[in-house]
Design goal:
By secondary structure, the protein is α/β, with parallel strands linked by helices. The chain has a single domain, classed as Alpha-Beta Complex (2-enoyl-CoA Hydratase, Chain A, domain 1), CATH 3.90.226.10. The chain has five helices and nine strands. It is globular. The termini are far apart.
């Protein structure tokens, strides 16, 4: 016996097909990322930005990882409450010494609010060596995962 498909059945099936939401963009998790080669992070994040990738920062994103601030739109990133961003001047991996070109490359990806925080909290404007990591709560720049976007969540630097 053959099934009887009516016009009504096709209308309902078509409506369901077109009403199904598109698959959510994939999320990548950043968890205890100490950074690496800046140009590699820039290239990776630019590809992720074009792909519409979302990110979750769980604990910390330091060094080259922080260029995410200027590449991935902030509405596509959420953070866990204790997540932190760690900043320092750039290094030359061959000499293990401060590199002004690497520092300039990282610093250019920081928005005005990040630059202001680095200047206000640490008196650092990207123009001098700063080998100690400067930690700022990631919730200053991104929404807390599971909460609506509402801008910075506080002003504490720790």
């Amino acid at each position: 016996m053959q099934p009887k498909y009516t016009v009504k059945w096709f209308i309902v099936a078509g409506a369901l097909l077109f009403a199904t939401p598109a698959a959510a963009q994939p999320s990548k998790v950043i968890d205890m990322d100490l950074g690496g080669v800046v140009v590699e992070y820039v290239a990776r994040y630019k590809a992720d930005a074009r792909a519409g990738t979302h990110f979750i920062i769980k604990r910390y994103c330091a060094s080259a990882c922080t260029v995410i601030l200027g590449i991935i739109p902030r509405e596509r990133v959420c953070v866990e409450p204790a997540a932190a961003m760690g900043f320092h001047s750039g290094y030359n991996f061959f000499t293990f010494w401060h590199s002004q070109p690497t520092t300039r490359l990282m610093y250019k990806y920081y928005d005005a609010d990040v630059r202001a925080d680095l200047a206000n909290f640490f008196n650092w404007r990207g123009n001098t060596p700063h080998t100690e990591i400067m930690w700022l709560r990631a919730g200053r720049y991104y929404r807390i995962c599971g909460q609506p976007a509402a801008g910075p969540t506080g002003i504490t630097k720790d």
